[in-house]
Amino acid sequence: MNDSTNGPFSMVQMFWGNLAARPLRCFLSIIAIAIQVVLILMIVGMTSGVLSDWGKRVEGVGADIVVQPPNASIFFALSSAVMPQSFGDEIEKLPGVDVVSPTLFMTDQKTMMVVYGIDYDSYKALGTGFIFRAGRPFQSPDETIADDIAAQTRHLKVGDTVTLINRPFKVSGIVVHGKGARFYVPLKTAQDILGVENRVSVFFVRSKGDTAGLRAQILALDPHNTVRSMSEYVSLMSSSKLPELRPFIRTMVVLGILVSFLVVLMNMHTMVMERTREIGILKALGFTRFEVMEMLLGETTVLAFAGSLTGIVITFLAQAILKQTTPSLPILISPGWVLASIGLALLGAALGATVPAIRAASFDPVDALAYE
Length: 372
Description:
This protein is an alpha+beta fold. 55% of the residues lie in helices and 17% in strands.
């Protein structure tokens, strides 16, 4: 057969002919593949975004070193207050220390938001301090400072009352985000709420310049504690460096491929049954088995690309909407994962189309032409 019959242009013509004849089925296939792409990109994007945002906020505290209890989680929401506050006095006596700030973490069980109980003076001395958009620092046990993203999300202004850890707090000030938490309360108040007098979750430490030397000095005080430099801590805020998250992400990817595979398999199987006579005519005209498979897989590839592009558009649209409606939920979508989602969509679609395509290619022309 000549190239005009078997060429790419002919394949595209056949695809659009199939699309025009079966628009609903093709549309559902595109949507199913788009769902796979959205599922992968949103799950990975949310995971990466939350980790990246958390790392940047902790880095924004201004400390050089993070001192945690033995076997403490890098996720502060999972940390417990088991360190004596007096240990901070020992750290402060070390020659390489500039500032030590004891901090207690509380997790709001309803929102899973981490609230910092801080000593205001030492905490602001770690870095550039808080930049207030409105209001002032807390001055009483029942006051809180909120960052601007939390205030925007909850529609708060100075003087409003917000419930944190099942307790009402008056918003005394709203600050620029990026200094650790979304909400800050007095350290003593946090200790009273959790019933952990003179206990803290972490010590943020700023060195006088020799971070590595100071880290060694802190470990010498108590080698059982977890002492990380801030650069080390931030480097851990990546899904690729957290083995606990890999099975979750892989499971979501496999589910996405499975969705694409099953939908394309059912679609292609039904399509092959409906087009048995058409395939018989093509083989009678001289189409080889390979050319029949190429035609069917080519149609699937076009559907997969259309579904992938649709899924990418939906994902970025959802990202833009969530950025406006829920600014506290960052979504980070990398170009690498966009390309990976397209590749995975093609893989799932190809796997789903292969068996029906092989079956169609094996049709005997005489039997196919006699098929009713």
